[in-house]
Design goal:
The protein has eight helices and eight strands. By secondary structure, it is of the alpha+beta class. A hairpin with a 7-residue loop joins strand 6 and strand 7. It is globular.
Length: 261
């Protein structure tokens, strides 16, 4: 399983699985993306990264850690940025808000951002929702990219309070085995986890790998799931953790506005 650890400013970010781990210089060295049709105008990964950081800094948000991965001969990209300060998210003692960024040159998915959390003790990642930068890689996307990024980053940063409320709600929700087992089954039905992973989630719930998750709360069970999701490719973690948040919001009695999309 590929793994990279990047120490920048506020701490360490880890990408556990899902391609080749690279730095920004390697992204800039990638060949220019090829157009696959008359209407396809892909955004270079390095340009998307630089514009994201530029917009974050313009909002007073400091990037204090970053990690990047590519796959499929460099055609697909995924990055994670720890953020703090200004109007952005700040770290607590046990978790930090992060921004995920993904892009593709092969039309596998649209350029998008997502707000998420990184739990320090186990370096688990989970994303609550995403903001599509453009409906597709259109002819004028590079010309319009600064404004598109500004709107997208503003939406993501504006979601930080919702995410903080969500985590607090999970922590305050007491959870017994009956409710935990029901949520595991519901997660299986929703295809958040696959059948072979059911036993892994239950083991993490019953005997947590980290003592911080010994309290019987929604937060502990949520992290039992994200501990197991580390075994999936990073883009799959992005897709699976969004409905996982929806499941736990309902179970923990949270009436939050839908995540950005």
């Amino acid at each position: 399983m590929n793994r990279t650890e990047t120490n920048v400013g506020g701490g360490q970010l880890v990408l556990h699985c899902g391609g080749e781990n690279v730095n920004r210089d390697a992204l800039r060295a990638l060949p220019a993306p090829q157009r696959l049709s008359a209407t396809h105008f892909p955004i270079p990964h390095a340009e998307l990264v630089s514009k994201t950081i530029e917009q974050l800094e313009g909002l007073g948000v400091r990037v204090n850690g970053e990690a990047h991965a590519i796959s499929h001969q460099g055609n697909r990209y995924f990055g994670v940025f720890g953020v703090a300060g200004g109007d952005g998210a700040s770290a607590t003692d046990d978790y930090q808000l992060v921004i995920g960024l993904r892009n593709s040159h092969d039309q596998s998915y649209q350029a998008s951002l997502a707000l998420g959390t990184r739990v320090f003790v186990c370096d688990n990642l989970a994303f609550s929702g995403d903001v599509t930068i453009a409906r597709k890689h259109t002819k004028y996307i590079l010309r319009d990219l600064p404004n598109l990024m500004h709107v997208a980053v503003n939406k993501i940063v504006g979601e930080r309070l919702t995410m903080e409320q969500r985590v607090a709600g999970y922590k305050s929700r007491e959870m017994d085995d009956l409710h935990a087992h029901d949520l595991v089954v519901r997660a299986l039905d929703a295809k958040i986890i696959s059948p072979p992973k059911v036993g892994d989630v239950l083991r993490e719930w019953r005997e947590p790998s980290h003592e911080e998750f010994e309290p019987r709360t929604g937060w502990s069970l949520f992290n039992a799931f994200t501990e197991v999701l580390k075994g999936y490719q990073i883009d799959s973690i992005w897709k699976r953790s969004q409905p996982l948040h929806g499941l736990f919001d309902s179970a923990c009695g949270l009436n939050l506005l839908p995540s950005v999309n």
